[in-house]
Specification:
The protein is of the alpha+beta class. A 7-stranded antiparallel sheet has the order 3-2-1-7-6-5-4. A hairpin with a 4-residue loop joins strand 2 and strand 3.
Length: 134
């Protein structure tokens, strides 16, 4: 069983099938609509791969679906806290039937391993060191 991670907020990102805009829906009931340029700018100062985005300044972790039509994430998260990952897994299970592409437990595990590898590979204890300039 997961312990809640406060003051973190879970969120989901969903691409609309009608106008290709992205909806960001947060657990604090905030809803934001962005086009692709707006979504890219949201994560421009983050480490980004095909599987995961991490924004260390905001403590934000996003796990992307296979083709990037949607993602789930958590803000103000501690990457090294097992409860963060447990809560992401439970959240994915809860929202997957509403998503165009599911976020599977193996995707969450792969994202966690990638980020932990990056921490080790960079010999860093700080998430701020994970920003990679593009």
């Amino acid at each position: 069983m997961c312990e809640p991670v406060y003051p973190a907020h879970l969120f989901v990102i969903i691409q609309s099938r009608y106008d290709n805009k992205f909806w960001i829906i947060k657990s604090n009931k905030e809803v934001i609509k962005k086009d692709i340029e707006g979504l890219i700018s949201e994560f421009k100062d983050c480490y980004n791969s095909l599987r995961v985005s991490i924004c260390p300044n905001e403590g934000k972790i996003i796990i992307w679906s296979k083709n990037g039509y949607n993602g789930i994430g958590i803000e103000r998260a501690d990457l090294l806290d097992e409860n963060t990952w447990c809560n992401l897994s439970k959240f994915a299970h809860y929202v997957n039937d509403k998503l165009r592409e599911p976020i599977t437990p193996s995707m969450i595990d792969a994202a966690k391993e990638e980020l932990l590898w990056l921490l080790g590979a960079h010999h860093s204890k700080s998430l701020n060191d994970l920003i990679i300039e593009v």
